[in-house]
Amino acid sequence: MKFEEIDLGPDIMSGLADVNYTELTELQEEVLPAVLEGKDALVKAEPGSDKIASFVIPALEMIDDREEKESASVLVLTPNPEESQQIDELVWAMGYHAQIESASVDMDTEPEEQEEALKSSVQVITGNPGPLADITKKLRFVFRDVKLVVIDATDSMVELGLQSKLKGILRRVLNEHQTIIYTGEMNDEVKKFAKHYLEDPEVIGLDSSTKMLSEPPKVDSNLSHGYIYVPNRMKITTLMAHIEETPTDNCVIFTASKRGTDRLYRTLRKQNLKATSLHGKLSDEKRAQRFANFTNGDVQYLLVADIPAAELDIQRVTQVINYDVPANPDEYRYRADLVGSGKASRVVSLVSKQDRSDINELESTLKQAPKELNLPKKVKEKLKERKKKKKKGKKKSKHKKKKRHNNGRNKRKKKKKDDLELPRPSYDKLSGGRKGQAKKDQKSGVIGLIKELFS
């Protein structure tokens, strides 16, 4: 699509021509119509000029339509100073013919410049939450005429712990306004933020994420869901035994990490089971292909890590297995929502020692709590074998200990015996010996005679 096909003012079109913008990118084709219609939006997008232009162009068009342009109409919040300055430059270049000005309140500008930027009559203010929150608080500054707020790279803001700064700035926007939130990844904190600040938003770049902004579904009362306490160092064994006992048409297995999906993938392939994996680091193309392989029925098992269940556009699967128990009860509900109700459908969680607290929270939070299930037969058999080996090992160790103990006792006995059988010293040649003493006494005259008589 070309920009000429969109209803933009002549001054904005001249600005686009100045920077050689002729055709919309795929992201811009999705974002521009929604923003131009005045809708709130939640957009997943990577950093770059493509993303920046997707909100700068409709923002400039909105300002150009306004009769009064003496105060800020657009507020853009971004986490790093380089991007704030880049946005500022693009606004100046594209808005030159429409006489739209902007200012950047970022970490690289001096406090005096930051104050001047807020006091000046620019139409677009871009900035980093830290310095912007501090300077607005110092000046007791409020935004009275802002019509559009853009929050960029919200996931990075959350990682940097800037939520309180963001909230402080947004409290200073006094009038009703349109909000666009951009994020590189969707997580619980971004979801909470979006739910609070967006109203009936257009969701772009996130599969089925409209579910994420609404209340999580309740667990179907007809759904069979439970958990298995996994013996120590037997998690994969338990999983494979459970899969063997409960064959299904299709199954989604959730793990806590990409490493976990890779490990399970190798295990399933060794058993000649068709599987594929999804994780947050996959490119959009690979992710779409693998997802299609599962939904088309080419593979039976879908291994998922680092992707919320609400993002998976799956109608019904026969079984969901939580290889790692979700810490968030809402995530458990979304996973359960992937499964159709009925006798053949189920959700099973494998609970290891470190998962006990998570399953306890689920039991206390969910109205229909999961029930404890029996261990698969193969796991029980292996446990018996393990116990037998342990008993044999204990017997052997006891026998060895006893043998060592007996050997030690025998050695001590032998030593005592040897001590008893040592040759007695001869006193014949000792001066104090019996014979030697006798000879000495004989020489002593009367004393020797008396001793001889008594002896």
UniProtKB/TrEMBL annotation:
Residues 368-455 are annotated as: Disordered. PROSITE patterns: HELICASE_ATP_BIND_1 (PS51192), HELICASE_CTER (PS51194), Q_MOTIF (PS51195). Pfam families: DEAD (PF00270), Helicase_C (PF00271). SMART domains: DEXDc, HELICc. Residues 377-416 have a biased composition (Basic residues). SUPFAM superfamilies: P-loop containing nucleoside triphosphate hydrolases (SSF52540). The keyword Membrane does not apply. Residues 32-204 form the Helicase ATP-binding domain. One of its GO terms (cellular component) is cytosol. It comes from the Bacteria. One of its GO terms (molecular function) is ATP binding. Residues 1-29 form the DEAD-box RNA helicase Q domain. Residues 235-383 form the Helicase C-terminal domain. Gene3D superfamilies: P-loop containing nucleotide triphosphate hydrolases. A motif (Q motif) lies at residues 1-29. Keywords: ATP-binding, Helicase, Hydrolase, Nucleotide-binding. Belongs to the DEAD box helicase family. This is DEAD/DEAH box helicase. It comes from Fodinibius halophilus.
